[in-house]
Amino acid sequence: MKLNIALLAGDGIGPEVIDQAVKVCDVVATKFNHEITWKPALTGAAAIDAVGEPYPDETHEICKNSDAVLFGAIGHPRFDNDPSAKVRPEQGLLKMRKALGLFANVRPTFTFPSLLEKSPLKRERIEGTDLVFLRELTGGIYFGEKGRRDGGETAFDNCVYTREEVQRLAKKGFELAMTRSKKLCCVDKANVLETSRLWRETVQAMEKDYPEVEVSYEFVDAVAMRLVQWPNSYDVLITENLFGDILTDEASVISGSMGLMPSASLGSDIGLFEPIHGSYPQATGKNIANPMATVLSAAMMFENFGLQEEGKAIREAVNKALNEGVVTEDLAEGGKAYGTSEVGDWLAANV
Amino acid sequence: MKLNIALLAGDGIGPEVIDQAVKVCDVVATKFNHEITWKPALTGAAAIDAVGEPYPDETHEICKNSDAVLFGAIGHPRFDNDPSAKVRPEQGLLKMRKALGLFANVRPTFTFPSLLEKSPLKRERIEGTDLVFLRELTGGIYFGEKGRRDGGETAFDNCVYTREEVQRLAKKGFELAMTRSKKLCCVDKANVLETSRLWRETVQAMEKDYPEVEVSYEFVDAVAMRLVQWPNSYDVLITENLFGDILTDEASVISGSMGLMPSASLGSDIGLFEPIHGSYPQATGKNIANPMATVLSAAMMFENFGLQEEGKAIREAVNKALNEGVVTEDLAEGGKAYGTSEVGDWLAANV
Ligand SMILES: CC(C)[C@H](C(=O)O)[C@@H](O)C(=O)O
Ligand SMILES: CC(C)[C@H](C(=O)O)[C@@H](O)C(=O)O
């Protein structure tokens, strides 16, 4: 297969972890007879510094003309405590999601047996956890009208959903549930929000098309609790944009392996693959960031092209590295800590 | 002191746990020479069944003419899976919060040494946790304009905040921080939402009035993570209505003692005091619900009247019951489980 992959390294540790994923993908491509052409492009604070915009048109052109996007991380602390900043790295991310039609964010949370002790949760709570969130990514309060009134004294953000937006996301949820244990949980706040009532009634109406899927409906506050209490009671969860933002981050830490969690954003033909961790500014340039989440995101990318074997080869290399202790300091537990690039080299050599 | 207390037992286990709090308060009143007049009133599904409305005018009259409201729980499953229900118990709760001006929901999360093992979190993560959320309770997306367009195909919920709404909540947060460890965390999503940017800039502008308080700003998704990772790194947190709904519930389970967590809603002269747990329909009428959260809510009520000794007497009785194993089945751990009313009797006798 010939693959054109847009490479958006972004900010902070983004470039370092992306470099490792490229190394690993290049070896996989050689082994399986694919040809990857990497198309680097600017995004995030890096793009603001270079051209004054977090998702420049040139970057969009490159993404649009690629088969997929491999993404590092964006965000820089100098923007976070300045509520009046006019241009923010995050705007680039949102613009990109919208422009590429990436309405479904797929975020798995699973455990690695060798890492169970890293979880803040007790072993019996976390063991066997293997859940996937499908977060709606291009609607809701993120993209509704927002602004100020009364000379800046009143602020508003509008949350809007159409039935169609709910349907296309829920469809992916039902389909995913069919390939797994046929359990789907719709997360909303239907006791308060009208948008949530639209979500619930839309999903209820779809149940008849998937008679084998057992659907449950839970309030977002209840899910925030049960994720900590019994994460392994969940399988596939679907939810709107803001709830998904909060809950997927919550879910990501319960496994204790946040540095290992990949994600995919799908919708149009072009998927975007990125680690769920952020730009981790404190670690930037120190060769200590864990590249495994990005490498596993590349595995999701191959799998999304239908290249299951390629994905599996990467996953097995990561498992082997974990078992043999070839890990960065976040997972070293007093043992030897390898550098970001050493872990990347090892994975490339063992894939 | 002469105290008129509106008694809103509500749904599910509400009436059972409220009964125990009344018993305990009556003994405290006798011991400390107070005179409590209880004014029972309808709310929730119980009120819908009786008079067709979840927060009837008569109930509001009673609350308005009382010194405080002691509240059980509301909610009934028959409303939850019916997105088209016209009247819902929750509307009563929201109407009451607004009508009584209860803009600040105070929700502590703390640990009981004897219950540390009940937490889903490992001991070293949870030990020493003692945090308080101040959740804004009468604004935001809960109360903004909501509805449908396009013949029902599009739904919207508007989130609105004024600077003044943020200021009065933040003021309570700063004041609370001054009585504790002088650390305040403002939780928002300022990288995406305009209302959050208003929150952040308003709190930033207030910092100079409280030079001793160390203020931090964190995104809601990051807090959802850190609450599970290092809950004991937080002290006082302030946040808007919906974020508060999700995060306070998440926080409530990390201690492992959800059946023990009280709350207060303050704003006008009349405070409302309630357990944070819900109406727990499965347990209704079985005399198994844990009354301690409601009893501790009554302690918060006394303390809010400036009656510190009375509050302390209740807290000490609860601690003693926990140490001596006088607990309901949720905390019994294979030991003897007492009934709801037996725990209430014991507390009343030991206060
Ligand atoms: C950076 C931010 C805008 C973004 C979001 O809120 O969607 C991030 O938290 C995420 O989850 O990808
Ligand atoms: C019942 C519901 C409307 C309510 C809320 O969302 O505020 C509840 O979850 C709470 O936190 O008190």
UniProtKB/TrEMBL annotation, chains A, B:
Keywords: Amino-acid biosynthesis, Branched-chain amino acid biosynthesis, Cytoplasm, Leucine biosynthesis, Magnesium, Manganese, Metal-binding, NAD, Oxidoreductase. The record marks 142, 189 as: Important for catalysis. Its main location: cytoplasm. Its EC number is 1.1.1.85. Gene3D superfamilies: Isopropylmalate Dehydrogenase. One of its GO terms (cellular component) is cytosol. One of its GO terms (molecular function) is magnesium ion binding. It is found in: Cytoplasm. Pfam families: Iso_dh. Binds 1 Mg(2+) or Mn(2+) ion per subunit. Substrate binds at residues 97, 107, 135, 221. Pathway: Amino-acid biosynthesis; L-leucine biosynthesis; L-leucine from 3-methyl-2-oxobutanoate: step 3/4. Residues 4-347 form the Isopropylmalate dehydrogenase-like domain. The keyword Zinc-finger does not apply. One of its GO terms (biological process) is L-leucine biosynthetic process. Mg(2+) binds at residues 221, 245, 249. Belongs to the isocitrate and isopropylmalate dehydrogenases family. LeuB type 1 subfamily. Homodimer. HAMAP family: LeuB_type1. This is 3-isopropylmalate dehydrogenase. It comes from Lutibacter oricola. The lineage of its organism: Bacteria, Pseudomonadati, Bacteroidota, Flavobacteriia, Flavobacteriales.
